[in-house]
Amino acid sequence: MKTKKFAIILSGSGVFDGAEIHESTLTMLSIAKAGGTYQCFAPDKEQAHVINHLTGEEMPEKRNVLIEAARIARGNIKPLSEFSLDDFDMIVFPGGFGVAKNFCSFAFEGPDCEVDQEVETVVKSAVEKGLPIGALCISPVLMARILPAVDVTIGEDQETAEAISTMGGSHYITDHGEVIIDEKYKLVTTPCYMLDATIQQIAEGTDNIVKELIYLSENP
Amino acid sequence: MKTKKFAIILSGSGVFDGAEIHESTLTMLSIAKAGGTYQCFAPDKEQAHVINHLTGEEMPEKRNVLIEAARIARGNIKPLSEFSLDDFDMIVFPGGFGVAKNFCSFAFEGPDCEVDQEVETVVKSAVEKGLPIGALCISPVLMARILPAVDVTIGEDQETAEAISTMGGSHYITDHGEVIIDEKYKLVTTPCYMLDATIQQIAEGTDNIVKELIYLSENP
């Protein structure tokens, strides 16, 4: 079997304004355990805002998505503008509010949200080329906004599930570690911290997403 | 067996100016897998500086160790001033330059470095009470500065090993995932990213540290 090459798209560093750190780290671990390799990417743009993760309040600062995401990637990260479909077998979007704040405006505007142009192009062109995509936690709302009539899960949160319906998608209730596969888009989703989860349950979710992505990439 | 309660002491969020994110996250995962619980702590103080993790250069900003560490802890973190020995069975210090910049000044001043007073008190009183301590990556230099004639490993980096000797400690060369146990202090160390490691090797290191800490706590 050829080594599978994963692109991981990060939306910052920290659950409340960026990429969820445990989901991102455990995605990397799951890929390594499965014998794959990964390269991190993030858009070189300003974060929607900065949240004090101790208090939950907004801080009067500006931070850059790529520069903060580099913390999770230990500096080994590239701007999303340098991402090329030809270099990868699949793509993973970890969760965190960064996806709903920096990749689209879902956290502020709900189903009518706008999507970052660069992120939208990556998702659409990956689907067109038949590259499998994994989306964790809140990331399925981004997919529901970009891809018509998509099948996804974000766990069981009713409000978010309804928003997915409003955007034209179908939501399926799942428990910890369970995945929903949309075969037409080769899209795999799992709830992770959209449920009240332990870190072990997150590891189970990332293991399962990686396993399904590898399966989809080998069975076109 | 009683559930083992771990305190995790974080020095920020990001390898170059704070706690190493993978080591911190995988410590949590190892504890959960071993059936333990954890609570994160960090000192409520300003970081020594802020490093752009994309370029490695210093940024003209100020950040707080506790507020940034809260990103790794998903908000569930307490100031180190609220740490009480009576509530825990053992303590873990993940690595990252934050240990050598925010917990002591080793990164700037080498073996003559000063140690944060709050951190020093926690380490000394834990040793006095017989609580096992785990120290990953660069954290053993902090222990060598606080505890006389300590046995530790930071892998194989010669300059750091020599600095440990200068501070009165003994350094033992180790490979990925290997641990050194100082029985008199109940101190367990492992190199993690002080070696050129994969994320799987980090997970092996945190698994082994947690296993040894549990063993030490049950065999006083």
Automatic annotation (TrEMBL), chains A, B:
- Reading the lineage from the top rank, the first entry is Bacteria
Which Gene3D superfamilies does this UniProt record tie to the protein?
Answer: 3.40.50.880
The family database entries (InterPro entries) matched by this protein are listed as: Class_I_gatase-like, ElbB
CDD domains, per this entry? Answer: GATase1_ES1
Look up the signal peptide feature and give its range. Answer: none
Q: Which NCBIfam families match?
A: PRK11780.1
Name of the protein in question: Isoprenoid biosynthesis protein ElbB
